[in-house]
Amino acid sequence: MTDYEMFVERVKTKTGIDLALYKEAQMKRRLTSLYEKKGFSNFVDFFKEMDVNRELMDEFLDRMTINVSEFYRNGKRWEVLEKKILPRLLKASPRLKVWSAACSTGEEPYSLAMVLSNHQPLSQVSISATDLDENAIAKAKAAIYPERSLAEVPAQMKQKYFEQEGSFYKVTPDIKRTVTFKKHNLLNDRYEQNHDLIVCRNVMIYFTEEAKDQIYHNFSKALKPGGVLFVGSTEQIFNPAQYDFEVEDTFFYRKKG
Question: Which first-to-last residue range defines the signal peptide (predicted)?
Fold first, then answer.
């Protein structure tokens, strides 16, 4: 057994996180640069220290999850969501059950709330946002972002829903109130059911084919018939029918029924 395989086994026993479900080359590269930075020369010694050092464990979790996000990422897709997808969903159900899965540092669920605010009062908007990384969730709850994260935010939204604090921008309380954050592991934890919309973007590329297959099946079961899965711009599902999906638009998949 290689030292990486031993590391994978020990991490799974300690945390329940199965690194074998992530693409090995990418994960190994990311974690090797972390342990070298910390002065270790192999995965076994790295784990020994991680086992007793909470701070190092948190840093490991932060590194293995991919916290690169921004508001309205790939703006044209958000336009499709606003003008085509949401009007149909809201016609069927005026109070949508929305889940932002693998939400990272919160830009995505807050973007969702802003888009929904164009269709209904914020008092009717409720979004569940989950991530595996507690550090990312803490940042999401703080809701303070550098200007570069807002590059694609429409000007009127920036004016309405952000307060500038020095070189940072803070999400306004009325938007913050619409989002509930909690920890969730897409590969292990139970999925809530009856969602109208699930948004999970730019995370599936890091999983193995086997893991992706499992997650897409779970997303399908978690959606109502007619509900929609919105994925990232490098994450097209090539055989949507096997998950009971049909293409509603590029990167939007509607559950049949």
Answer: none
